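Input.
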Amino acid sequence: MLQERTVEIGVGLFVALGLAALFMLAMQVSNLNLTSRDDGYLISARFGNVAGLKARAPVEMAGVRIGRVEQISFDPQSLQARVTMRIEGRYNALPEDSSAAVLTAGLLGEKYIGLEPGGALDPLREGSEIMLTQSSLVLEQLIGQFLFSIGNKGDEGSGSATSGGGL
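Output.
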């Protein structure tokens, strides 16, 4: 009887640990952070295309996560996507002429914002806007451009024989 009870408690603890591990994995995959966070400061940037970028996506500089995407909205005046990012407070010396790009990480194509530092002495502050941006690459557009360039090369070779200079 005592041995059965010990086995049942052991199985219960094993199942509870497994559920806790699955919960932690789900939190990591969904980019949710339950720990205390530094409020930091908000900056924004405008992009022509942010395809695949989501709120809570990482903001990285030199491969280190320095913040998260807070909000993505559409600006009807500029007809561009406006991305608001929250940068951690300890990274308060980023040059104001830094650039931002929508990049792809990993095999699953997760999008994130990559920042490149500029050379200005003044830092980004609350409410600053990054002016130098590079939009997301869309695979369909790249394939279309590639096929269009192949089609144009084929047209150039089919010109008339009389258009060239003769002997």
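The first strand starts at residue 41 and ends at 47.
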